[in-house]
Amino acid sequence: MAALRNSGRILGWGLLATLTVLSVQLYWQEVASKPPQLSEAMAVNLDDKQQIHIPIEQVKDGKLHRFVWIADDGKAVRFFVINRQADKLSLAVVFDACLLCGDQGYVMQDNQVICVGCGVHMFIPSIGKPGGCNPVPIEDWQQTESEILINRSNLEEGLNLFSTIVEIEVKDPISGAKMKNTHTEHKYSYEGRTYFFENEKNLDLFRDDPEKYLGKEE
């Protein structure tokens, strides 16, 4: 009888150990082994002066505030703003990408900014400076008493850092036909903007004399 009880205990402990191992493996597969998820990026748009305005009151709390600007070709350019000092205003405005790990981005966990690509913890006061796994700085942004101003040209400097294309509606400057940017292979870059065409003929016409058609596209 005692031997039977001992066998039962051994079987019970063995089953418990097996369940524990399976639980750990399941946790690793479903949670721990997956990279942290980026917080949602707030969409921002350019004003008539080709600038983006971000209220300082919105971003001065020391948290990572992520934004996204959609370029003419649908490229999603992410960036974030963070106040680097707890006792004073010291803002950094940077692309949500680095030269080493690409556009995997950064997350904030337990008041630490972490590169999703390699897991490196950033020294927050150094954010805004180039080098290493630091996020790529946005150049020449401006700060007033109440807001941050970022020029279109400065955001365009980060286009090659990102790979995500968002589907948007575009218009052929020749025919005026509307289409999705992801549904045509005919496109042409001119003076910092990307134009889309419904066929190769329209692309060739525009390429030969862009200025002739730019008024139609507006």
UniProtKB/TrEMBL annotation:
InterPro entries: FtrD-like, YHS_dom. Residues 170-216 form the YHS domain. It comes from the Bacteria. Residues 59-162 form the Membrane iron-sulfur containing protein FtrD-like domain. This is Conserved domain protein. It comes from Haemophilus pittmaniae HK 85.
